[in-house]
Amino acid sequence: MYILTFSFAAVSPGMYEVYADEYSSYVGKLNVSAYSDNLKTFYGEKPVAGRTVSAKLSMFDMGENIKIGDKVYRVESTLAENASENIMVYCDSKDAAIKYGLKTEKVYRKSPSERTAAKKDSTSNSKKSSQETKKTAQKSKSGSEKETSGSKSVSTHISGKSLGKFQITAYCNCPICSGQFAGKATSSGVMPKEGRTIAVDPSVISIGSKVVIDGVTYTAEDTGSGIYGNRIDIYFTDHAQAQSYGLKTKEVFAAQ
Ligand SMILES: [Zn+2]
């Protein structure tokens, strides 16, 4: 507050005060680039230039307002944990996204107590969207249950010893999820495939090995700068399905 008294002449003092106080927690200098793909956000809405950003859920909360440089944006989409950027800003044209390039920006967020308060607000304000998310989650759940029970009959997916609890996210091969690696093969050289490909930390799960998550056997085929320790990124073909997966903690087993 005290730092800002000199700039009151230029802007509405009330606004400036709130603005500065709100984003008091410095995250660090992060890699930020831009995208222009008009894919629906986590909330099932069209992205809005100047507001929508995609960010890694291991760093930020969905729906959280963050300050990049001197502008405030809202996290409305998931960025793959293995993307080299930390944040991607939505632009309404490809030219604008190219012009944005790759920047290193100072990023700020609200203080932990203010984030908790904002989360409460957004849960009460967006009941509808969370219900929709639930529906989607239920849909995909019943889908994967079918798969699992189907495969049970041929008695594959027998899990071996527990590898422990992992933080699990999902990604697809689009520019929002995969940044500069969009459309490309995995780091092991094969093209990613839904129901098979996961990205891992090779020092935890070696490339080429098979693990079981929720009864489905996956192959460790991809890596990424954000995937370290007990973290796994599951590949999906469909962007919306990857988005709705969110961040989960699950026990992972070695495949037998
Ligand atoms: Zn995607």
Automatic annotation (TrEMBL):
<protein>
    <recommendedName>
        <fullName>3D domain-containing protein</fullName>
    </recommendedName>
</protein>
<dbReference type="GO" id="GO:0009254">
    <property type="term" value="P:peptidoglycan turnover"/>
</dbReference>
<dbReference type="InterPro" id="IPR051933">
    <property type="entry name" value="Resuscitation_pf_RpfB"/>
</dbReference>
<dbReference type="GO" id="GO:0004553">
    <property type="term" value="F:hydrolase activity, hydrolyzing O-glycosyl compounds"/>
</dbReference>
<feature type="region of interest" description="Disordered">
    <location>
        <begin position="111"/>
        <end position="158"/>
    </location>
</feature>
<feature type="domain" description="3D">
    <location>
        <begin position="196"/>
        <end position="250"/>
    </location>
</feature>
<feature type="compositionally biased region" description="Basic and acidic residues">
    <location>
        <begin position="111"/>
        <end position="122"/>
    </location>
</feature>
<keyword id="KW-0732">Signal</keyword>
<dbReference type="Pfam" id="PF06725">
    <property type="entry name" value="3D"/>
</dbReference>
<dbReference type="InterPro" id="IPR010611">
    <property type="entry name" value="3D_dom"/>
</dbReference>
<dbReference type="InterPro" id="IPR036908">
    <property type="entry name" value="RlpA-like_sf"/>
</dbReference>
<dbReference type="InterPro" id="IPR059180">
    <property type="entry name" value="3D_YorM"/>
</dbReference>
<dbReference type="GO" id="GO:0019867">
    <property type="term" value="C:outer membrane"/>
</dbReference>
